[in-house]
Structures are given as structure tokens and as C-alpha cells.
Amino acid sequence: MAGSKGSFSTSSVLERLNSNDYSSVGKGFGTYCIVAAAILIPILFSTIFMGKKKVKQRGVPVELGGEAGYAVHNARHAELVEVPWKEATTMAALFEQSCKKHLPERFLGTRKLVSKEFVTSSDGRKFEKLHLGDYEWQTYGQVFDRACNFASGLIMLGHKEDTRAGIFADTRAEWLIAFQGCFRQNITVVTIYASLGVDALTYSLNETQVSTLICDPKHLKTLAAISSKITTIKNVIYFEDGETTNDLGISANTSYWKVLSFSEVEKLGKNSPLPPSLPTKNGIAFVMYTSGSTGQPKGVMITHGNIVAIAAAVMTVIPKLSTNDVFLAYLPLAHVFELAAESVMLSVGCAIGYGSALTLTDTSNKIKKGTKGDASVLNPTLMTAVPAILDRVRDGVLKTVEERGGLAKKLFNFGYKRRLAAIEGSWFGAWGLERMLWDVIAFKQIRAILGVRMRFILCGGAPLSGDSQRFTNICMGTVLWSLAETILYPGHRMQLCCALGSAIVWAIIGRGYGLTETCAGAAFTEWDDPSVGRVGPPLPCCYIKLVSWEEGGYTVADKPMPRGEVVVGGVSVTAGYFNYQEKTNEVYKVDERGTRWFYTGDIGQFHPDGCLEIIDRKKDIVKLQHGEYISLGKVEAALTSSDYVDNIMVHADPFHNYCVALIVPSRHMLEKWAQEAGIQHQNFSELCNKADAVSEVQQSLSKVAKASRLDKFETPAKIKLLSDPWTPESGLVTAALKIKREQLKSKFKDELQKLYK
């Protein structure tokens, strides 16, 4: 996921548009007729039938206990949703019942590793390239048996039921099997990001007193290096990748702990099966360590009831979710967003195919040339995404369009404008035949980047820009025909027009809002909501309340919409922070009716239809020297739309009357400008330090700031360009690619001080 903008290359996306072969849409006169009809007929019909859309009520106000505010619940559910079905009150019960229901069906898939090799770049760096084969599948029945075997094996290995097991690994099928296996013996799991630094890893393991650690083989050397600092671990279980402990440079007979492979533990359990010891609804299922944007990571205690409620709620939001769906899993399972999504897929009986951010597409960094990426091989219908992934897909496509120029660029831009007008205009503007034509001409190959069957993307982890949301909806959306209306009312002129003309514009992105403390869920956009910038109504498992923040100038009495701090209440609100009662008491509250509330620190506003929009964050607001308030997050979100910005952190000092910014520029865009401007440089680092480059980026920021209507004091007066990208591995961004403000301030302390001189 890390890297510069445009790293998802899409060089073949519009290749056919500059060729002379237009046989797919007709030749000669026929082509012109089709194009003319596609343009003129929908315009004529939309003029005749255009009408004002009726506003759908998605959330409704509700009177609740606790602190006074403006509260809303989901309009389609009067009562909070707690379980997907009556008997599934815990993750262990949900897993067992779903596996038995879907026993012979595909469940977890992993691509076969055919070969791997290392290539050397022009600057001498070596990169691993993988040749991956087809997906190999395990059924629901097979996965359930493996989880049961692993659970028994843990106890046979000597793990005590009242102690915790940790998972420190990348996303893979065995991660989920180990996770579910622990629940069969009522073992609380501690989940830790694979990219977490050594200090934070040591802190997390010691604080939760993990006695069994499950990890990737590549992490064994790291564990050996800090073995003297980890005081409670007795057993280490590693996932096999073809290596032995000798290959990994670690002995199975260390004085610190027992070391066994995952299959060895499964074999122990298979040979000595034990009856399950199942958890209760209110039991702690897992302690999830957030990579956090400030200080040491905090462990959020998530109950079985929390995660089951989220799964049940999201199942009501994703349209037509069924066993026919195939889910592409590649985000970190140690992040609550991905874990919640896979729990939804498990509940429904979907197939889950595992991949990685580095092998996602045909042109991803670790894919060997000529080998298909995960999306192309799996051809999924569903996936999760963080905004950075979608931003790179968009930027890669737009870069290709710009480079192609000519007819390709004109057709793409015209088709894009037509679809944008359809979404933002009348219901009839989404005219089906025209949409199909543009699919063939301009968007078919773009859709193929993530698989031609992709119908819904769950986006979360960070704010998604309106541009990226619109781009994905327009270029990767699917067409659903209302043919039933023609069959039911064949003689009715209006119904016939509806059937032929109003293919539904499928809002392929479902934007989610939530935090680890709310078990990933709080609000979720509904599939038929074409708006951007909002995060939808509350999920049916929770309430959302706005509480006035007088100091920041946000109140529930504000017009035209109530504003305030976002507070989430209901069955998805977690149990608090592990071993951190003071912080738990600060942000978690229980009202007189027994409802548990979490104070998010985010500032939101409710639209008249009950949809939430996040507009600010309390911690991001700084008061400048002359009394103006600046919202760092708001400014960063606006300036990210500059073509030159790959990542940005805005900084404001209360002792000055202006702000400054640290910027990781888009390497492709800045080097392209330098070439056109005749700026000589030896490497990218040297280019970032050149005054001309800084001036060029500064001018771009000023234009974007003006277009976004930022005040003068909100536009960075000085900037510093940084050549190295911010990655989760560097500790400067989270696994969801949100910036870690405190870590960035600490690392670039000297650079920030110079900007204020």
C-alpha cells in the first residue's frame, strides 16, 4: 500500500482506444449512429421526464439517555441489531454454525507460489518478484476441522486457558484459522500489526502477558533479538512458508520458549482432540492494539457481542450479499476494519481469497512480469479498501489518460462527464444504453483492474476524497437493469421508459465510519446514495449522537444542520482499554438507561436525511497567535488534491500566525515537471531540495487552497519536500495509512523548526 502516487500502473487501460479497431461498437456509419443516439436520446428523455428526486430518509432522530445532544438511529431498524441469527451470540458460535451450514462450499483460498526471483534496479536495489498460480481452496468443513485441531493442539502444547495468545502476522488463511481456533477454547487473542515497531511490539506483548505467540516465519529473528525483554511467552508457533527452523536461523530448543510450526500444533490436536470450552457473549474475544497516531499503542478490548453485532449490522447494508460472492482479502487482519469485513463474509458463507497489497493487480510491485495479480485471478465481487489504494488506482488511470492524449483522452473525459452529470442530475440521466456504450468504449478495461465482477467496495480506515469516490463509482460501477418493470407493466409507457432507460447507477463504494473502539462500525453509506463527502446513517447496531462543543464553535443548535462531537452508543461499543482505566473512564460513558457511549473526538454534522458527515477533529484544531482556529485535518484533506502531493502533514504553532507543511511529493509528477522545466538533478532527493521545485509545489498548494476556499492563514506559508515515502514500516503512518502526527513531529523536529525561522 505504501509508495508514491501512481504505483498501481494501468498502462494498458486505454490502449485499445488509440487503435483503429472499434468493431465492438460498430464501424463507419453505424458507429456514428450509435454514438449520436447515445448522446441525443438520453438528453431528450431526461428533459421530458426530469423531476426532483424525493429525499429518502436514512436516519431518524431519537430520544436517548446520557449527555444532551442530537441523536439519530437507522431509519430501517427501530431496535438495535445484535446478532445475524438468534443462536449466533459469540464468534465461536457464529463460526461453527456457519461452517456446518456451508460445509462443502469454498471458504478460504490461497494462491500457489510457483517461483520467486530477485531483480536488480538501475540504482542497485534488489526487488523480490513472485510468480503466483491459481487459488487453492479449503471448504468451510475443512477450515472448521483445522480450527478445532489447532484449538486442541494449543492446550496440548501447554497453553493455559486463562492466558492470552497473540497473533503477529500478515493477512493469510492461517491467521483466521488460528483466530477462530483460540475461541474454541475460550482463549482471548491479542492482535498486533505486522508492521508494528520493536518497542511497541515488546510493550504490547508484556502488557497483555501473552504466553503463546503465533507469527510469520520472517518475524522469528525479530523475536529472538528481543527475547530477553519478553517476559511471559512460553510458546512460539510459526506459519510455514516452506522453511524449517534451521532455515529461519532459530532453534526449536531455545531456552526462552518452545518453537513449533502451525501444522505441528494442528497434528497435536488431531491426535488428541479435546472438547471445546466456548466463550460467552460478554467475554473479551480479542485485545486489538491500534498503531495509534500518538504515543504507545492502546489495546482495545472487544467482546464477542461487539464483533457479532457489527457483522449482523453490515449484512443488512451490503446489497444482495450471498454465498455467490467472492471476497478479496489483503488488508491487515490486525486492523478491525478487515477483521470485521471477513466476519461478515464468514456469516454469509462467502468465499474469501487471500492476497496482498503488493500482489493485488497485474502491475503490482511484487508481481513478476507476465503473471496475473490477485484481482485478475480471483475475479472477486467484494473487497475492502483504504482511500490510499483507490487514490492510486485513480491517479494511475488519469496519468495513463493524460499520456495517451488524442482520441483516448477526449472519449474518456466526455464519457466521464456524461456519467457524472447522470449521477448528479435527474434520475433519468443514468440512461442504460448510453452507460453500456461508455463501458465498452472507455471504462471496461479500467474495471478489469480490480476484476470485472467487482460490485461493491467497503472503504474505510481514513477519509475518502470526493474525487476518488466519484471516479470509482463512474469508472468501475456496474449496471443493473429494471427489466421486471417491463414484464409486469408491458403496456405502460412510463414503465417501459424506466425499464429501458434507468439502469441503476450502482454506488460501488460503501463508505464506512468507525473506530477500533466502536469495533469498526458506526455509520455506513447505503448503496443507493450517490452523494459524496458523507459517511451515511448509523449502522443498525448503534446510535450516533452529536454533543455540542462550545469551545470549538460547534453546537447542535447550529443551522442549517446540527453539529458537534460524534458520540457512538450501542452494542458495538467496546469494553474499554486494556490496563488503562483512566483513559477508559475519560472517553467511555454508560448512561442511566445502560447504553454504553464512546466519545470519538471527531466533529460531525447531520444532514436532513439522517446521514452523517465528518467535518473536523478536536485534536487537530490549533489556535494561532492572532486567535484564528485552524483545523489541520481539514487543511490536509483539501491540499491532498494537489497533483504534487503524495502525503502531507500540516503543522501549526500557537506562537505564530501561519502554518507550515511537510510534504512527500508525487515522484512521477515532480520529475515530469522538472524534465519539462529543464531542472537538472542527480536524484529525487536533490530535486526535493531545489528552490524551484519547492516554489512549484507551493504555487500548486496555493491554487488548491483557493479552490477549496481556505483562508490565507490555512494555506501553508512554508513547506519542506521530503523524498522518502511514509510507510507503516517506517512508523510514520498507520496500517490504514493515516499519518502519525506525533511521530512525524518528532522525526522532523529540526525541519519544522527551520520552517518557522
TrEMBL record:
Record keywords, A-Z: Membrane, Transmembrane, Transmembrane helix
Lineage, highest ranks first: Eukaryota, Viridiplantae, Streptophyta, Embryophyta, Tracheophyta
Protein name: AMP-dependent synthetase/ligase domain-containing protein
Protein's UniProt keywords contain Repeat: no
SUPFAM superfamilies named in the record: Acetyl-CoA synthetase-like
Domain of life: Eukaryota
Record organism: Salix dunnii
Transmembrane region(s): 29-49
Residue span, AMP-dependent synthetase/ligase domain: 130-479, 508-578
Cellular-component GO terms for this entry: endoplasmic reticulum; membrane
GO MF annotation terms: long-chain fatty acid-CoA ligase activity
Keyword Transmembrane: yes
